[in-house]
Every structure is written in structure tokens, then in C-alpha cells.
Amino acid sequence: MTTLSFPRYFEQVPGHIYPPATHEFLSHTSEVQLLVHAATFPELFAEAGHALGLLSLRDTPDVPQGDWREIEVESADRVALLVDWLNELIFLAETERWIGIEFEVREMGSRWIIARARGVSVEEPPAVVKATTMHQARISHRDGAIEAEVLFDV
Q1: pTM for this one?
Q2: For residue 98, what is the DSSP state?
Q3: Can you tell me the mean pLDDT for 134-151?
Q4: In a domain, 9, yes or no
């Protein structure tokens, strides 16, 4: 399968260099708030998956192992898609004892994503994150980039 390149959501300004996708965790009462910034939606979803993987591994970086694994998710809208995408990754961690840490979005629409991931096997299910919630979940455009916020129930 060929990897697709996606156009930037916003019009690029000649000579402007866009930063790589980033994430940060913010403290929140009995939950963990994830804030992700990216130039494109595929980068946003890949970075959100990577952030969840690091959180599940308790910020201990690891090298992805094994073959790429295909992951497909459909949802009602783009915000729900982000929440469902992260919940699918939590489900894989809990049921297959596998944590994704490297992601490549192959195809994406406003309500679906086809991606592939590589990760690490763990001896015990991580149980760090129970679920991603729709509460306060949002995707917005800020300063020429895309920003997303979700809450993890921990």
C-alpha cells in the first residue's frame, strides 16, 4: 500500500516553516488532559496516539518492535473520531498487551481513519488509562495549526 501525503489544512505561507507535531499533558482532577498541536489532521492523530503510548508506558520511551499493524476506525464526526481512535488504542493495549508508539496515517476523512502502527508488547496490560472521554473533547484551529484536547480517565 502506498503512503498518501495530505495537503495542509491551512494555506501555507511561502517561506514559513511549520513546526512538528507536539503534545503536552496537563494535570486535571482524577483525569489526564492531553493537548496536541499539529499542522495536519493525520499528524494530529499520529501524535495523539504517540502521546497515549508514552503515557501508557509511563513516559519510558521504547523502540517499536515487529511488523506494522493496520488500524481502522469510523465515527460520527472528527472529534468523536479522535476519541474513538484513542479508545481503540487503549482497547488493543488492554486486550492484546500491545502499546502503539509509532503511527502512520494512510488515509483519512472527517469520519474515518486508516492507519498503521508499530509498538511494543508488554507483560501486563498497562491499566494506566481506562478510556478517552468526550467530555471537553475538542479540535480547533489556532495560530495556523490544529489543536486538539481530550481527557483520559485514569
Answers
A1: 0.85
A2: E
A3: 94
A4: no
User: Does the pLDDT of residue 69 top 80, yes or no?
Assistant: yes
CB-based contact 119:75 (threshold 8 Å): no
Average pLDDT in the chain: 86
| d(C-alpha 51, C-alpha 103), whole Å | 11
- Reduced to 3 states (helix: H, G, I; strand: E, B; else coil), residue 141 is strand
Would you place residue 61 in the very low, low, confident or very high pLDDT band (cuts 50, 70, 90)? low
**Would you put residue 144 in left (φ > 0), alpha (ψ -120 to 50) or beta?**
left
Looking up residue 88, the CATH number of its domain turns out to be 3.55.10.10
Q: Write out the residue range of the structural domain in which residue 87 sits.
A: 24-153
C-alpha 10, offset from chain centre: 20
> Which residue, chain included where needed, has cell 497515549?
52
- Long-range contacts of 122-125, Cβ-Cβ distance < 8 Å, separation of 24 or more: 122/57, 122/93, 122/97, 122/98, 123/97, 124/97, 125/93, 125/94, 125/95, 125/97
